[in-house]
Amino acid sequence: MIKINKKILAVGFALSVLSGCSERLEVLPEQSIATSQAFSSKSNAQASLLGVYSQAQLFDVFGSGPQIIQDFQADNTEFVGTFPTLQDINNYVTTSPNTTIQAHWQVHYRTINGANAVIDNVPGVSDPAFTEAEKAQFVAEAKFMRAILYLSLVNMFAQPYQVSNGSTPGVPLVLKSFTGTVEFPARATVAEVHQQIIKDLTEALPNLPVATTAQSRGRATKGAAAGYLARIYLLRGEFQKAADSANEVINATSLYSVASNFGFYGATPTTEHVFAIVNSATDNGRTGSGGWASYHRPAAQGGRGDCAFSADLERVFALEAGDKRVTELSDLATAADNQRRRMTLKYKDAATNTDLAPMMRTSEMYLTRAEALAELNGVNIESINLVNPIRVRAGLPAWTISTFATKEAFIDAILLERRKELAFEGHRRMDLLRRQKPLRTTGSATILAAAAFGAPKTILPIPQRELDQNKSLTQNTGY
């Protein structure tokens, strides 16, 4: 995403202590420097900030790992790969020692600690070349990153806000950088985590830049902060706030627009992207476990073919013939189970992993505002006009005000459009849970029970290693 000399990585990663862990992260001496050096100048502080972005690029954060799980736990993707840790999650039989889940927790908190180091130390950097405005921007970018990292964590490891209005256990809030003293924080509630996310995004927004270049869409901007506020408000069912925040992006027409075709899938951000993780052939989040295209492309193209269209998603697309999100954005390929299956073409480069990670698209903002306005006002022309560019791009007929007889039918149609448009981008699981719906509606009785709204294994377990080290942590029900 951002190229960094490893010798000047942020102190946050050198001294990172994971929440609930009493052992320091082992980092080679040549990969780390002391706090006094990491924040001794503008250039070193910038390296520390870029280190946060670089860590977020990794497979276990925004490099596809958690996002793949979000899709196959729900009903868009069928996981047919051979990784036992992922098979267990897919089948709702996972346990707390799951090493994949442990890695997701660990690297998220490592990256949060890097963001905390920037927030804590940048204001005190003494360098005549480092202006107060630049310092404020660096802190704002770190707060943005901390916010979206916590949103990812609380979505994975906690029940949605709709379960007991967010009073259920969330994740530990670690808001100060590690200084040598190990702490063992308990889990904040979902509501408390949400409020911290909103606070960070709200405080960050005024000091963030606008997205003036393609590469700037890979860093925090005013549009990205507004977009994430829209997302969390939608997750909470705060529809007016969601509509208003989404509109901040939508109204910035010189910066953001719904593309006329699907050429925006690739390696370069466009006005369709509000925020993206930018990869290249030499700088990407791939590990031995793979990346976006590794899951979605077959072995013949350098991937593994682990994730195919579910039968239910194919059924949904078949409701309206000629949808270009099938005809242009998918193909039939030999999947990991040696069966011919439909697979997405949103991520094509399984050889060098240059595909963008589409963290937030302009189309999501259109759909968010459309849904929120429908909840507030029923069938309305503004929502219809927001959804129609997305439908027309997909080769489907535009809606009119007379297309829908009831508010309920209208909202269902918007949600269906959202499902098709954002498929394979990591949204489906939380979209179902925030609407208090089961993650799956087909399968055995055991699977259906496990996938029900509020069921224990619709969320991931707190990793066993964290429970062993931090006695303040409590495990999720059912694990």
What's this entry about, in short?
The protein is mainly α and 479 residues long.
**Count of helical segments?**
19
- In the predicted model, the low-confidence regions spanning at least 5 consecutive residues are 1-32
**CATH architectural name of the domain at 1-208:** Alpha Horseshoe
Secondary-structure element series? HHHHEHHHHHHEHEHHEEEHHHHHH
Helix content: 40-55%
Oligomer: single chain
* Strand count: 6
Choose one word for the global shape: globular
Derived from helix and strand composition plus strand pairing, the structural class reads: mainly alpha
Strand order of the largest sheet: 1-3
CATH fold group of the domain at 1-208: Serine Threonine Protein Phosphatase 5, Tetratricopeptide repeat
Q: Average pLDDT across residues? A: 92
Rounded to an integer in angstroms, the radius of gyration calculated over CA atoms is 22 Å
